[in-house]
């Protein structure tokens, strides 16, 4: 922890946190970390299953839906870590590499780590450590929530569309394993949006945290919304596969370009990184609209929605 003077210590001792990390939050973070790893395993199993059944086209699509989001989210997260790194200190490439690897496999591992440290500091009554751990937890929660959004809609959502389109073309291909993957995919999508919206609220001091009941209602609403839209896209893909794919790509490029021109998000140090981010949001907008930044809705948000 960084050095703080006596006055800062006194201020931190008397400070009160705007939000608290509850046991419910810690449990849900642990579940999210496990679900992320489970999703990766299921995607790999599906690709292997297609390869064994000589469905090489489906196998290639599945592998692409794993590799492309992995590359994009790794680039985005690496940029987040580099931008947030103190300019006076050199970037430790080895540490950066392992953070990227762990983050890909267990997105919420770092968030869970700081949440547990926060709980331990609170139990000891160490106010300074408690505030510091909460600050680190909040920063990780925002970063990972941001990445989880892309994980879900660049990896999980296309997987769902592909699997549903296959099942709609051949209902006999619906197995218990595939049914379980549908359940996990739909639940992970809804929870991703809930976590992303919650992290956006936490960084706004004028808003309260959402309680368990509110999260439950929001979760089921988003579950129904994303499931219905995904099923509709999958139905079209089962009838017009290439046409649906082309329209989705066009939608992604169009929305990403509008977002880049209208909002000009300052995410990365280069315009290329900012445009990649906007294209990623364009892919998200195929399934659901969510604002890029906090604040009131502007004209570009109305146009994109």
Model regions low in confidence, pLDDT < 50 over at least 5 residues: 1-16
- SSE order: HHHHHHHHHHH
Helix content: over 70%
> What is the radius of gyration?
21 Å
Average pLDDT number: 76
Helices, by number, come to 11
Determine the structural class based on helices, strands and strand pairing.
mainly alpha
Beta-strand percentage?
Answer: under 5%
What characterizes the major β-sheet?
A: none
Number of domains: 2
Shape: globular
- Please provide the count of β strands: 0
Q: Termini, distance in Å?
A: 43 Å
GO cellular component, one term: plasma membrane
Subcellular location: Cell membrane; Membrane
Family: Belongs to the XK family.
Pfam family, one: XK-related
Explain what the structure shows.
- The protein is mostly helical.
- The chain folds into 2 domains: 19-239, no CATH class; 240-305, no CATH class.
- Helices cover 77% and strands 0% of the residues.
- It is built from 11 helices and no strands.
- Helix 6 packs parallel to helix 8 and helix 9 packs across helix 10 (271-284).
- The radius of gyration is 21 Å and the shape is globular.
- The chain starts with 5 loop residues before the first helix and ends with a helix.
- It is a multi-pass membrane protein.
- Pfam families: XK-related (PF09815).
- It is found in: Cell membrane; Membrane.
């Amino acid at each position: 922890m960084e050095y703080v003077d006596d006055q800062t210590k006194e201020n931190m001792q008397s400070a009160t946190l705007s939000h608290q990390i509850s046991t419910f939050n810690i449990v849900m973070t642990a579940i999210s970390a496990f679900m992320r790893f489970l999703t990766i395993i299921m995607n790999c199993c599906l690709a292997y299953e297609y390869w064994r059944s000589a469905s090489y086209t489906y196998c290639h699509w599945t592998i692409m839906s794993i590799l492309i989001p992995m590359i994009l989210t790794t680039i985005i997260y690496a940029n987040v870590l580099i931008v947030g790194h103190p300019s006076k200190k050199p970037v430790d490439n080895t540490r950066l590499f392992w953070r990227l690897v762990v983050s890909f496999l267990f997105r919420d591992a770092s968030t869970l780590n700081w949440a547990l440290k926060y709980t331990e500091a609170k139990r000891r009554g160490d106010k300074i450590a408690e505030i510091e751990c909460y600050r680190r937890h909040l920063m990780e929660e925002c970063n990972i929530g941001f990445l989880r959004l892309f994980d879900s809609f660049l990896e999980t959502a296309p997987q769902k569309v592909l699997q549903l389109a296959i099942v709609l073309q051949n209902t006999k291909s619906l197995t218990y394993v595939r049914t379980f993957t549908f359940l996990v995919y739909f639940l992970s999508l809804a929870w991703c949006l809930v976590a992303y919206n919650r992290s956006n609220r936490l960084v706004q001091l004028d808003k309260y945290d959402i309680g368990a009941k509110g999260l439950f209602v929001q979760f089921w609403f988003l579950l129904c919304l994303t499931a219905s839209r995904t099923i509709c896209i999958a139905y079209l893909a089962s009838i017009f596969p290439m046409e649906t794919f082309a329209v989705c790509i066009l939608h992604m490029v169009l929305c990403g370009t509008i977002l880049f021109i209208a909002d000009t998000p300052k995410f990365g140090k280069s315009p290329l990184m900012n445009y990649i981010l906007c294209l990623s949001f364009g892919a998200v907008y195929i399934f659901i609209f969510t604002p890029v930044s906090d604040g009131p809705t502007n004209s570009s948000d109305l146009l994109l929605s």
